Amino acid sequence: MAKPVVAIVGRPNVGKSTFFNKLAGKRIAIVEDKPGVTRDRIYADVEWLNYNFTLIDTGGLEPESKDIILSQMRAQAKIAIETADVIVFMVDGRTGLVAADEEIANLLRKTGKPVLLVVNKVDTSKLPDSFYDFYQLALGDPVPISSTNALGLGDLLDEIVKRFPKNDVEEYEDEAIKVAVIGKPNVGKSSIINTILGEERVIVSDIAGTTRDAIDTPFVHGNDKYVFIDTAGIRRKSRVVEDIEKYSVVRSLGAIDRANVCIMMIDATEGVTEQDKKIAGYAHEAGKATVIVVNKWDAVKKETNTMNEYVKEIRNQLSFMSYAPILFVSAVTKQRVHKILETVKFISNQHSMRVPTGRLNDVINEAILLNQPPSDKGKRLKIYYVTQISVRPPVFVIFVNDRELTHFSYTRYIENKIREAFGFEGTPISILYREKGEEI
Question: For residue range 269-328, what is the model confidence (pLDDT) as tens digits?
Fold first, then answer.
């Protein structure tokens, strides 16, 4: 199921980013080069009271400003508002109520979404007189917090999770392959979906899903059942500005979370962009099977080895997704579009594959003989036993003598040996280490 989405909105400089970073914690203090993660990340996964949700930071809203930058920030915030299940409207407890707060409150009331009015920068238990002015916004009881001092955050989180939507998305049979078509705006997602639905299916129905007005499209192709996840924003023109590319990531999150397989679309005329990396990185981190579909191939001037060079560039730019097959298609000419569903079915099977424990250990033992595990200060890593503990994505646990002796390069070697023996094409796999006696 999709994680609920919580958007933080408000005027500039009321403390939205401080609040965001406080809740996101170490996830935002990024020091490593991790796929799909950049320093300007504007979303983070947060857990509270066994609830997992996605938190979105936004640019400040200045409703009446004609300034280009502020207009862009306003458009970005509107995208986040449309995507959100719960809206945290943050105001400044030191400055007090201002006209822009009233304009934003008017905008938020029209959304019909649950809105929490949060008064930031209340640094003591004694509420300032200006606090009570915020009741004029008619958004319920204001919640006082101090993001900087982490005061009142627990009470606020309790109120946020109370407002999450009930689980009202229709579930489908387990055998149905749930597919998310993802990518930045104008890459041809709608054209690809319409081509597949128009030629290779019997549509079962359009089913309204969550409060975000998601539309899931189940259909049958041959003997196989599929569901295109959350096509509402793809199949009809969005009500919001689509050229705010930074926020196209946000629009993909829920669909990725609910899918088994992702079709990652890339524009052949542009190549792999930073936005593509973010979206593909999220699918990778979420453990989804993925096929990379390069659309508009008909618009690329061909020379000798053009396709091979393009594959090299994709593998270089999306190096964390080396397992994903690549298709070159054209929604206009319908070139190779028929191969998309075929590939989706194949990698879905790979994503769900479970390998026999005995055969798995034979492969690992052979790998150890060919390349001894690493050692440190005279102590060598010993691998006792390997087992697969789950699918979608495949996860393997390796029991060892000392987890501190494991090394990234040897883990990659083991992963490559597993892939050589069993395939797992199109799916990420995870390898975990446990010492004897530890629970899996």
Answer: 999 998 889 889 989 999 999 999 999 999 999 888 999 999 999 999 999 999 999 999
Q: Which residues are annotated as a binding site?
A: 10-17, 57-61, 120-123, 183-190, 230-234, 295-298
Distance of alpha carbon 398 from alpha carbon 405, whole angstroms: 13
State the total domains in the chain: 3
**Are 287 and 404 contained in the same domain?**
no
Residue 120: φ, ψ to 5°: -90, 165
pLDDT in tens, 188-231: 888 888 888 875 545 555 554 433 445 678 888 888 999 998 66
Instruction: Report yes or no on 169 lying in a domain.
Output: no
The confidence band for 242, taking pLDDT boundaries of 50, 70 and 90, is very low
Q: Tell me the CB-side half-sphere exposure of residue 56, using CA atoms within 13 A.
A: 33
User: Containing domain of residue 420, as a range?
Assistant: 357-435
| Of 62-66, 201-205, 357-361, 374-378, minimum mean pLDDT range | 201-205
Q: Are residues 277 and 298 in the same domain?
A: yes
Distances (CA, A) of 362 to 234, 255, 320, 357: 46, 38, 27, 9
List the helix and strand counts (H, then E) for the chain: 12, 19
Q: Does 197 reside within a domain?
A: yes
Confidence check: pLDDT of 125 > 90? no
Regarding whether 183 and 150 lie in a shared domain, the answer is: no
Give the residue ranges of the annotated binding site for GTP.
10-17, 57-61, 120-123, 183-190, 230-234, 295-298
User: Is 360 within 8 Å of 388 (Cβ atoms)?
Assistant: yes
Domain at 329, CATH number: 3.40.50.300
